[in-house]
Amino acid sequence: MKLDYHISANLVKGTEDGYRRLGVRWPNNRYLVISLSGEMDKHPKNVAVKGLADWRCRYDLETGTFDVPSIFARANAEALRWEIRR
């Protein structure tokens, strides 16, 4: 059985204003928010496509570390349940 993987990482816009539109009060220009998405497609076509849709983490430019703030917890849990049935 063949597996196809499609993975992407994207920066979420908002660095300049500390991501205020997300409802947080982080210092301007300190963090980057990264969105991860991907899917694993099993063949033959009668199997579901499973993946990850818009899972987010934060990178601290001062300390060089990644973390997942609690504000992302609910959306990240939902992102892990993403599935398309054929």
Describe what you observe in this structure.
It is elongated and about 50 Å long. The longest helix has 7 residues, at 73-79. The protein starts with a strand and ends with a strand. The chain is built from one helix and five strands, in the order E-E-E-E-H-E. The model has no long low-confidence stretch (mean pLDDT 85). The protein has 86 residues and is mainly β. The protein has one helix at 73-79; strands at residues 3-12, 31-42, 49-60, 65-67, 83-84. Strands 1, 2, 3, 4 and 5 form a five-stranded antiparallel β-sheet that branches. Helices cover 8% and strands 45% of the residues.
Q: How would you summarize what this structure contains?
A:
By secondary structure, the protein is mainly beta. It contains one helix and five strands; from the N terminus they run ββββαβ.
H-E string: EEEEHE
Percentage of β-strand residues: over 45%
| Major β-sheet profile | 5 strands, antiparallel
* Alpha-beta classification: mainly beta
Q: How many DSSP-defined strands?
A: 5
How much is the average pLDDT? 85
Low-confidence stretches: none
C-alpha end-to-end distance? 17 Å
What overall geometry do the principal axes of the alpha carbons give?
elongated
Gyration radius (Cα, Å) is 16 Å
Q: What share of residues is helical? A: under 10%
Oligomer: single chain
What's the number of helices?
A: 1
